[in-house]
Write a structure and sequence with these properties.
The chain has 365 residues and is α/β, with parallel strands linked by helices. It is built from eleven helices and twelve strands.
């Protein structure tokens, strides 16, 4: 057996010490990394936990009809999934009341504010005050251009164009039409742009009457449409009715049905369960509508608000694409808007605004 000399023994001991030191150093580094990872995970969970139990205010210019009802359902559904609570402030189409409701929500210390419709003159001062108090704001179809506020809208010109193009095709490029529309609302004004372009490019189609009001819109549309039908009593006098809002379409549809003028077709914008029933009815003059799932609108709006609460950077403008719903693409048996996605591709299930961390928030107890 070979004997170890002093020098060999010294080298062996040094090597052992070096390996031990290296292993010790690696262990400390690993421990540091593990501690940092644990700290980051804890931080992430803490940030998510801080978003639970938020109080959200929904300030609405009006909450008329089933479209608004389903939009509110979407808002409440998503906020509830995130562990928060919603309070709806209805303003009865009174902009002064809407401004007061916005001030009330700020004074009551809500964590976030959602706005549905409204005009800048009534809302801008209150919105700026909310931002000064670090209360994030996300609006839908509101005439607002305040830095830091995300505004959602439907692609209104596309919606109008889709229904008008179908009207033109069904009418063979000629005929007399009635428009039901009201000024002063951002989405209506955008839809009017497409309507004007349609008339300019279709000289064979003439507008013979136009009316509309936002107060009791369905009832008013029905009453005024009844008067128009008496003014144009003969079949062929009116080819179609184009409506810029589903509430108008309901009123026009009822008037036409009651008058027995089944040769007149109705084209609308926006969609709810009640609207779908009317479109599916083979005896109804309402044959098509361009729309975005109102529940989806509410869900997406809430997601962008929670992004702001989370500290994420959000776009100033978010546009929701619409689909065209036609009677001839629907089943004969009655369905509701929850089932509509089975027949109309792209109707529901939008993931816009959904961030990865939101899954953790929805699963948090």
């Amino acid at each position: 057996m070979k004997k170890w000399g002093k020098s060999s023994l010294f080298i062996l001991i040094a090597a052992i010490l070096l390996i031990t030191a290296a292993c010790g150093s690696k262990t400390k580094e690993d421990a540091k990394e593990e501690a940092t990872g644990t700290e980051q995970t804890a931080s992430g969970s803490s940030e998510t936990a801080a978003l639970k139990d938020k109080k959200i205010a929904l300030i609405m210019q009006f909450n008329t009809g089933t479209f608004s009802a389903q939009y509110i359902e979407g808002v409440k559904e998503q906020v509830t999934k995130f562990g928060g609570k919603v309070q709806v402030f209805a303003s009865d189409n009174d902009l002064a009341k809407m401004s007061g409701n916005l001030d009330a929500a700020i004074n009551q210390g809500f964590d976030g504010i959602l706005i549905d419709h409204g005009q800048a003159a009534a809302l801008e001062a209150g919105v700026k005050r909310a931002l000064e108090k670090n209360i994030p704001v996300v609006a839908f179809d509101a005439d607002l251009k305040v830095p830091g506020v995300t505004v959602l809208s439907q692609d209104d010109q596309m919606m109008a164009s889709k229904t008008l193009e179908l009207l033109g095709q069904d009418a063979g490029g000629k005929g007399n039409i009635v428009k039901i529309w009201v000024a002063g609302f951002a989405p209506m004004e955008r839809r009017q742009v497409a309507y004007k372009a349609f008339l300019d490019s279709n000289p064979g189609i003439k507008e013979i009457a136009a009316f509309g009001t936002a107060n009791n819109p369905a009832l008013d549309a029905q009453t005024q449409m009844e008067a128009i039908l008496k003014q144009y009593p003969n079949k062929g006098d009116i080819t179609a009715v184009w409506t810029a809002w589903d509430e108008f379409a309901k009123g026009a549809t009822r008037a036409i049905q009651q008058a027995g003028r089944d040769e007149i077709k109705v084209y609308g914008i926006d969609m709810s369960d009640e609207d779908l029933q009317l479109i599916q009815d083979p005896k109804s003059p309402w044959v098509a509508s361009a729309a975005v799932d109102p529940k989806d609108i509410g869900r997406v709006q809430v997601r962008y608000l929670y992004q702001k609460l989370h500290g994420d950077k959000t776009d100033d403008s978010v546009v929701l694409d619409a689909v065209l719903v036609k009677r001839d693409e629907l089943p004969k048996e009655a369905i509701n808007t929850t089932q509509l996605n089975e027949y109309i591709k792209g109707w529901s299930g939008r993931t816009q605004g959904y961030a990865d961390w939101m899954k953790e928030l929805e699963q948090a107890k």
